[in-house]
Amino acid sequence: MVSDRRYLNNFFYVLPAILMFAIFTIYPFIKTFQLSVYEWDGISPTMKFVGLKNYLEIFSDRLFWNSMLNAGIITLLALTFQNMLALLLAVIIDRGVKFDKFFRTVYFIPPILSGVVVGLVWKWIYDGNYGILNTILTHIGLEKYTTSWLSNPRTALVSVAVVHMWKGFGWGFVILLAGLQTIPRELYEAAAIDGADSFKQFWYVTAPLMLPIFFVVSVLTILGTMQIFDLIYSMTRGGPAGATEVPISYIYRYMANNELGYATAMAVIFGLVLFTLSILQIKISRKLRKV
Amino acid sequence: MKAKYLYMLFLLSLVLLTSCGRKKGNLQEIVIWHWMTDREEVFNQLAKEYYELKGINIRFETYAPSDVYREKVRAAAQGGLLPDVYSPLGDQRELASFINAGYIEDLTEVMNTGWKDLFFESVLQQNTYNEGNEWKVKPGIYGVPIDVVSIQIFYNKTLFKKAGINPDNPPTTFEEFIAVCKKLRSAGIQPFVSGFGEEWLIDVFSKSFEYQILGEEGIIKTIKGEIKYTDPRWITIFELFEKMRNEKIFAEGIITMINKDAERVFATEKAAMALNGSWGINVYSGMNPQLNYDVFLPPKLTNAKYPVKIWVSSSFLNVNPKSKMKQQAIDFLKWLTENKQQITLAEKTKNIPSNKNVIDAIKYDVLKKFAANLDKSFPTLPVMENWKVVGTKCRGIQSIIIGEKTPRQLADELQAEKQKLLAELK
Amino acid sequence: MPAKTEYVPFMSYIILILIAIICLFPLVWMLSSSLKSQDEIFTNMSLLPGKLHLRNYVEAWTRGKFSTYFVNSLLYTVLGVFGILVITSLCAYALARLELPFKNLIFFILIIPLIVPLPGTFVPLYVLLKRLGLLDTRTGLILCYINGGLAFGIFLLKSFFEEIPKELEEAAVIDGATKWQIYFRIMLPLVKPALATLAIFNTVAIWNEFLLALIILQDPTKMPIQRGLMVFQGTHITEYAQLMAGLSIATLPVIMIYLLMQKYIIKGITAGALKG
Questions:
Q1: How far apart are CA C3 and CA B161, in angstroms?
Q2: What are the distances in angstroms from CA C215 to CA B68, B317, C66, C135, C209?
Q3: pLDDT, tens digit (0-9, with 9 covering 90-100), for C146-194
Q4: Which of B82, B314, C108, C176 has its CA 20 to 30 A from that of C183?
Q5: In 3D, which of A184, A165, A152, A269 has the Cα closest to residue A224?
């Protein structure tokens, strides 16, 4: 039985967040959302109401769904390789190594670097003419694998994915490490006394306690990776011939060409897809927690 | 509750910040928004000169890169906060939207007082709308060209000599062009590079052939849907790219190169020819001052019915009709396009002046060649092809270049898309 | 004190070092390019510049007007991050532990921006700021930045708050602590790692932010450091050497903040808080 006054007091805690949110997020959000049922070029004082026409067109827009697929592929790669790498490194560092401060700092350099530098450097690494990657491959006798990584439709997407993962694993690393560090040492010591080796300790102590953190990292990875844009823009512009087009870059195209209604509608649909993915994640994590 | 104190402290600091953020604008001031970072210095220099001359303060504000600039302009248009002088920085269709929404001053009258005679006809056309244009813009002149750039094919004289080609005799026909490419390949040199990761550049190269085969009329007819993309003439154009691919003229990775990358490839002599704009003169001298190069026009096709045409573009500035300093702004723009200022601009930026009277004052030989060919500009049409169709065409050409599509496939795809769009318009 | 150094096999070190090299490489490249001359960047492929062009740094600082922009960026980042930490921790704590009607609904609405990316919301945002009189003000920009960090912050902190055993709270209540004291003295220190993480995330995000600042601000004296870097990226010519120098200068503070925040993720502090 909670008194209204108590509710009111508690409400002060969330008030600033809600207030800011209502003004700076919800209001612009609604205004933009409205655009999805119009055709508008962003300039004219008049907008043409078209109802659900934009949405219907999107369902048959092959290029849009292709872009979703591309983003999906990168996300899958990130969920597996990127997060496994982050976890592995976090576990090793958590166990205790020499120079751990050095490693911790270094792993966070990629996320800190500006997109400009990352795009430039990796383009140079992948370059078909002067790239270091090709040079290394040639030196170790794998010359037949050299190619123009970002221009070859077969390798372009994965090449960009690698850069994304390179830039992203630092975030996961930091969060996972933070999570690992909140696990009391006593639990490990107790398990060790019970005769558990490192693997058993991980499985019975670390993993269960880290489940919520894993969940957070996974959801953030999915949300963040599906919305990838900066790297695509600076490395391939969605090329070659659309092989690296992702939803945001595709939506951006429409915005740059002043078809704001269609662009917004695509964003809404994209949002719904991400929302569904997140709900699925929540359900899965709830089930795992019960275990 | 302590929480309250925390909020108040925080809000207080924010309020303090607001109060030290305000500045009243100077009323006798003209604000110009532009995106040309390389011209910032010379613009500020000219602004100072003008102030000494007329006592009016000109404030140039730079916002770059260009897509950020465009966003800012669009946001300002929505908010009613456009400056005195700016540019929508878009194509004809976008400029038309701005004009129809009342954001651009009609300059026809003041241009007709002799001002327009300063400029190259083909350049002025780009911000001019004629009778019967598809966007229903009132015919007239709406912008002021400040300088001009154009695209031709650069070639490296040293590399040509190395491959046994006479450097003073660049190719003029398509056959000669392919022959030159073959020689370069056998000498182990990449023949041709360009920023084909940027769709508009592919369009530029394609158009130089399109205009030769279809002419202005043919292109207009295609846009209107009267000529199909499956027409043999279009297929011939796409087959040119197939031929170029088969003859291996393209540099490695060309279809994801942005122009800056292509410029680097040419400047470091990793390719012998580059389709690039006159700004390349500036770029190359920064990357490799020793580079020995010249330019030539896109090659002539044997079955060409029409003359060769090249891409010519101008940086335009437009005037805000709601500006309180409208007349003064127009006066300033007039001054900016006078001979003396144009010469200053050309010297500092190495761009072609928009004022045709000062062409002879250009010091750089290569730049002179660009200026001499401005009459060959793509004509400004009363209609424009839908951006999605152009996008499909360019991406399709990218696919042809990497061997993933045939010309016939591209033609069919284009025509299907065009058909769908035409049906929607009805 | 690390409990199991002996258990870390040699292999682990190899992995750590390999990854470290791959991470450091671009930074080294950036620094080495910043000390070369423009044409050298493209001709000299080695990591060692021929001559040390320290002049690039001076140029970057002066032409990029870094003195002004740096201070601005500092202001925006510090106030922005502080604002985010305060507002999100209060909100997340309430959503995790206090009683409120429609808790789940509120949480859900607050994290929508993470899920539905609506590009182009900055045009209505621009018009909104104009109506509020916040256009071209530092306050307006900072408020936007704080707002931008809410969704993620609340999402992260709520999880961390929920993991803290309820017994700790109950013990404090028995000891006579008020809600505020529980929040400030017990809960907050326990989520220090998450707070530090948020601090880092948002520092990087705000420090590197460019688009919103350029659209909302007009007065050049209010511009952040990214604006300064723009000077070297001309429409056609990019002055790579100076750009790299500028980027090196711009990246330094963020690395320093990370080093600072890092120590809060060290076990010692959390273990100490749990015992106390």
A1: 70
A2: 8, 20, 19, 9, 11
A3: 998 898 899 888 888 887 888 888 888 888 778 778 888 788 888 888 8
A4: C108
A5: A165
pLDDT at residue B313 greater than cutoff 80: yes
Distance CA B248, CA B257 (A): 17
Tell which CATH classification among 3.40.50.300, 3.40.190.10, 3.20.20.100, 3.40.1280.10 matches the domain B29-149+314-376.
3.40.190.10
Neighbouring chains to A with at least 3 Cβ pairs closer than 8 Å: B, C
CB B192 within 8 A of CB B255: no
Is A33 part of a structural domain of the chain? no
- Residue C159 included in any domain: yes
CB atoms within 10 A of CB B236: 15
Inter-chain CB proximity C83 and B10 less than 8 Å: yes
Is A255 part of a structural domain of the chain?
yes
* Inter-residue contact A222 to A75 (CB < 8 Å): yes
Q: Which residue has the higher pLDDT, C225 or C40?
A: C225
Domain coordinates in residue numbering, chain B: 29-149+314-376, 150-311+383-425
Residue C135 touches chain B, beta carbons under 8 Å: yes
Instruction: For residue B96, give the nearest of B67, B136, B143, B141 by alpha carbon.
Output: B136
Q: How far is C173 from chain A (nearest CA, A)?
A: 16
> Which member of A113, A260, A275 has the closest CB to residue C116?
A275
CATH code of domain B150-311+383-425:
3.40.190.10
Q: What is the mean pLDDT of residues B100-105?
A: 94
B18 and C219 within 8 Å at the Cβ level: the answer is no
In the predicted model, is pLDDT for residue C276 greater than 50? Answer: no
| DSSP assignment string, B99-154 | HHTT-S---HHHHTTTGGGGB-HHHHGGGEE-TT-TT-PPSEE--EEEEEEEEEEE
Region B68-73: mean pLDDT is: 88
CATH number at residue A266: 1.10.3720.10
Residue C1 within any structural domain of the chain: no
Mean pLDDT computed over A237-256: 86
- What is the separation of C-alpha B110 from the centre of its chain, rounded to a whole number of angstroms? 26
On the 0-12 / 13-18 / 19+ scale of CB atoms within 10 A, A81 is middle
Tell me if B255 and A240 make a contact (CB, 8 A cut-off). yes
**What would the mean pLDDT of A33-53 be, rounded to a whole number?**
85
For residue C91, give the CATH number of its domain: 1.10.3720.10
Rounded to the nearest angstrom, the minimum Cα separation between A267 and chain C is: 6
> B148 forms bridges with which residues in the sheet?
B314, B352
Domain count, chain A: 1
- Where is pLDDT greater, at B5 or B130? B130
- Distance between CA atoms of residues B34 and C235, nearest Å: 11
The residue behind tokens 């509710």 is A7
B107 or C10, which is more confident: B107
ipTM of the complex: 0.82
Q: Touching check for B422 and chain C: CB below 8 Å? A: no
Residues 192-251 of A with CB under 8 A from B: 235-237, 239-242
The answer as to whether C260 is a domain residue is no
The pLDDT value given to residue B129: 93
Q: Can you read off the two tokens belonging to residue B99?
A: 């004009």
- Number of structural domains in chain C: 1
Does the residue A114 lie in any domain?
Answer: yes
> In the predicted model, what is the mean pLDDT of residues C101-108?
82
- CA A85 to chain CA centroid, Å, is 15
Torsion of CA A201, A204, A209, A215, to 10 degrees: 110
Residue A29 falls inside a structural domain: no
pLDDT in tens, B180-197: 999 999 999 999 999 998
User: What domain range is C158 assigned to?
Assistant: 65-230
Mean pLDDT on A102-119: 83
Which residues in B lie closer than 8 A to residue C222 (C-beta atoms)? 21
